[in-house]
Amino acid sequence: MEELKKRIKDAFKKAPKFELVELPFIDVTEDPVRPELSLEFRQAYGRKIFGIKDEEGDIAAVMCFAFTNDIPKSVEDMDIMSKDACMQSVHRAGVQGNIAIAYTVWAKKKGGGKHMVNEVYKMVKHSPHITRLVTLSPLTEMATKFHLKNGAKQVGKHLTTQNFEYDIELERWEVLKKRAKGWFNLK
Question: What is the pTM of this model?
Fold first, then answer.
């Protein structure tokens, strides 16, 4: 009976709230995936660093992105492609590449990685110019399990990396909700 009460109580527990924020700097030595990439690399050519703040205001996880117009097969490819997309954005009113490439993620608190993926997914899904969310992941079992468990599909396997893609297409009800907000000037 006590076990049943605990399960019911746990089911009604309030889910933690997270806020997605762009981070101006990070300690790159904390990155277990790509610690060799400098802060300057992570901030150059429109690349961005995001974190999620938990209810206490602490950063629970970090994810770094590059924006490209094609899927890279290596960090070197990503560097070249994000530079190219950044240069092209000068002619497109600052709109960078249409593919968000997540190339590193790590949790600073338990469960932070999964929540980070969920928050980034929501942001990307509702971004007007991003059409795809793809990873540039290391060839590790941990990376493979993480992305498959979080709903991604493997779309490439290369010499030193692998790519997973998250489906960001809006559901029919989301399209209708977006239209309705436009009709009624709702936020």
Answer: 0.79
Domains and CATH numbers, the chain: 16-183 (3.40.630.30)
Q: Do residues 90 and 141 touch, judged by C-beta distance below 8 A?
A: no
Question: 30: closest CA among 10, 48, 51?
Answer: 51
Extract the runs of DSSP E, i.e. beta strands, from the chain.
Answer: 19-22, 48-53, 59-68, 99-107, 132-135, 137-138, 153-157, 161-166
Say if CB 82 and CB 66 are below 8 A apart: yes
Who's near 58: CB < 8 A, 6+ residues apart?
A: 108, 109
pLDDT tens for residues 120-142?
888 888 888 898 999 999 999 99
- 75 with 120: CB under 8 angstroms? no
Read off the tokens for 162: 């692998």
The token pair at 144 is: 């493979």
Give the Cα separation of 76 and 63 in Å (integer): 18
